[in-house]
Amino acid sequence: MTEALTHDILRLARARGATVTTAESCTGGMVSAAITDVAGSSDIFHRGFVTYSNAAKQDLLGVRGDTLSRHGAVSQEVVREMAEGARAAADADLAVAISGVAGPGGSERKPEGMVCFGLASARGTITETVQFGALGRAKVREAATIRALELLLSALSED
């Protein structure tokens, strides 16, 4: 499934002259890997960010410590700042950010399978939270990767 999505992302981004970047936490680079698995992806993808720790989110993407302490790493507020920071740092047209609880574990407020997404573009930044459920670590990460690619494709498909 990711291969079809990434081919469409590459085709549309090329047609629009757009570049994309990623800011990943729980997916650990899986979205970047999916994009760069496609030959020619260097036309649209120049760099991505794996920011697993809070310090990395702050140092590389400019996420504010106050945002992390008030909302936690798995929050729409943090992925908003991650996406906006990645877009600026990569000088990209689109940035997708992911932070979630892949598992095992979680909490009542932030259960296993809860993943937050941010998408930053010239039009602004949107965020969403998806509850994938306690599918197990690998399946949550795979589902989050697919959703991030769908968000990029949707943004590229807008007129």
Polypeptide structure, described:
- With 159 residues, the protein is α/β, with parallel strands linked by helices.
- Helices cover 46% and strands 19% of the residues.
- It is built from six helices and five strands, in the order H-E-H-E-H-H-H-E-E-E-H.
- The chain has helices at residues 2-16, 30-36, 54-61, 65-71, 76-90, 137-157; strands spanning 20-24, 49-50, 94-100, 114-121, 124-131.
- It has a five-stranded mixed sheet with strand order 2-1-3-4-5, with helices on both faces.
- The protein is globular.
- The mean pLDDT is 97.
Offer a few descriptive terms.
19% strand; alpha/beta; five-stranded mixed beta sheet; 5 strands; 159 residues
Mean pLDDT: 97
Tell me, what's the shape? Answer: globular
Give the strand order of the largest sheet, numbering strands 1, 2, ... along the chain.
2-1-3-4-5
Radius of gyration from CA coordinates:
14 Å
Task: Name the helicity range.
Answer: 40-55%
N-to-C span: 24 Å
Oligomer: single chain
Q: What percent strand?
A: 15-25%
The structural class is alpha/beta
Number of strands: 5
Largest sheet: 5 strands, mixed
- Flag low-confidence runs: none
The number of helical elements comes to 6
Q: Could you state the order of secondary-structure elements as H and E? A: HEHEHHHEEEH
